[in-house]
Amino acid sequence: MRAFEDFKVGDTAEFGPLTVTAADIKSFAAQFDPQPMHLDEAAAQNPIVGGLFASGLHTVCMHMRLFADGVLRGSTSMGSPGVEEVRYLAPVRAGDRLMLRVEVLGARPSKSRPEMGLVNFRSYMVNADGQPVMQMTSTLMFGRREVAP
């Protein structure tokens, strides 16, 4: 089981791929972000958006799927005090094959709860061309194996 002590500053990992379909984009949008550019190819054909693309929130959810499978599953994860930043860098289109790249920016034992530590991550969703489509910076809490007396 991966615990706080296993995360070292500078560690990197990659997870995926996850392939996005037009049906995925439309299904998510119909339920959670029903804007025309996420629902209808014809409505999305304007010079600004240039075609159907996934909601930014959909991209965040795909990120969470890959992060949960790659980092959180089989760990001592205790949740998160919050996300510091999410940036949408490029549209996610039907047919995109996304990978998640994760880097550990910081790791420190909790001052108030010695049984846990906080790990700061920067992660990117990247398409098959290597172009980042989303960046997230977040902090997560993990249980510790060893707690100093």
Notes on the protein architecture:
It is a single chain. With 149 residues, this protein is an alpha+beta fold. It is built from 3 helices and 5 strands, in the order E-H-H-H-E-E-E-E. The chain has helices at residues 22-32, 36-39, 56-72, and strands spanning 12-19, 82-88, 97-109, 116-126, 132-143. The protein is 21% helix and 34% strand. The chain has a 5-stranded antiparallel sheet, covered by helices on one side. The mean pLDDT is 94. The radius of gyration is 18 Å and the shape is elongated.
Number of strands: 5
Strands of the widest sheet, in order across it, are 1-3-4-5-2
Low-confidence stretches: none
The largest sheet is:
5 strands, antiparallel
Overall, the morphology is elongated
Helix content: 10-25%
Number of alpha- plus pi-helical segments = 3
Main structural class: alpha+beta
